[in-house]
Amino acid sequence: MSSLNPNSRNEREPYVVSSKGYTAVAINAAAKAGEFIKSRQGTVKELGTKSSAQDLVTEVDKGAEQMIRRLVLTHYPDHAILGEEGVVPGADAVTAALEEAKENEFLWIVDPVDGTTNFVHGFPFYAVSIALAVRGELTVGVIYDPVRDEMFVAEKGKGAYVHGVKTAVSSETSLGDSLIALGFPPDRQVAQPANLAALQNILPKVRGIRAGGSAALHLAYVAAGRVSAYYEVGLSPWDCAAGVLLVKESGGQVTDTQGNPYHIGTRHVVASNGHIHEDIVSSLKEAGATGF
Ligand code: IPD
Ligand code: CA
Ligand code: CA
Questions:
Q1: Is residue 227 a contact partner of residue 91, using CB atoms and an 8 Å limit?
Q2: Which of 40, 64, 171, 246 is deepest in the core (most CB within 10 A)?
Q3: Among the atoms of ligand 1, which is closest to the Cα of residue 126?
Q4: Beta-ladder partners of 130
Q5: Residue 211 belongs to a domain
Q6: Residue 153's domain is classified under what CATH number?
Q7: What is the count of structural domains for the chain?
Q8: Domain that holds residue 89
Q9: Is the pLDDT at 99 greater than 90, yes or no?
Q10: What's the 39 CA to ligand 1 centre distance in angstroms?
């Protein structure tokens, strides 16, 4: 993959994470890309498809990713970038790209438009998602919703904020009181049957289900306490890296759908306020809907 830059940092240099500069760069890139995307809503000329007829891509996705790459590399030319539009579609290619990218000490994980289908249809629920992993550890996560002008920012160990106000997960302790978000990914082989089984099991137990069509925004909404939990099978690193840090820094929990700890390669994700986490995981297991 030509998009990855080799990391030339001397291993003997002391390791200091001063995430402030990185965060500022992530915020700036997300804001600029977000403005660009919003200005293009309703103007898409060429609609491409990727892994399936439902998996859309536009010139705006590609342009926004270029913009983010340029902005990040201007500041950090020796950092690596794993961006959705630089990777061949398909789970195996994504896994291979991540394996290669993981070797880099500083890895930016970028989804230029999360919610492309919404963007194409003019459904105003899409976002830019940018994360920085330092030696494999998520250190900065930024999600920008240009429609509502909401900038969600998390720094490892320092909490998460939306426009300067600390975010915190919600307090529901039972499924009956919970509002749950889920995603319907384009994959119809594994994800669709899993989702139908999960819906049948979970819908009768909860207050409500929402499926907005942006993994990043759903995770940001878990962080901000706007939904109690979110799950989806078949995600890629760029869909959730920034959002996972937001949820964790807001006091929430993130695992795979079997309850194992999240890592950057986790594809089947449950994020919650912590209180109802086990209930979601056990419901997915009971329904045979973990995606595994
Ligand atoms: C998609 C969105 C959608 C989710 C899919 C993702 P994209 O990302 O997050 O909500 O259900 O799994 O692939 O393709 O719009 O960047
Ligand atoms: Ca995405
Ligand atoms: Ca995308």
A1: no
A2: 246
A3: 15
A4: 110, 142
A5: yes
A6: 3.30.540.10
A7: 2
A8: 6-166
A9: yes
A10: 21
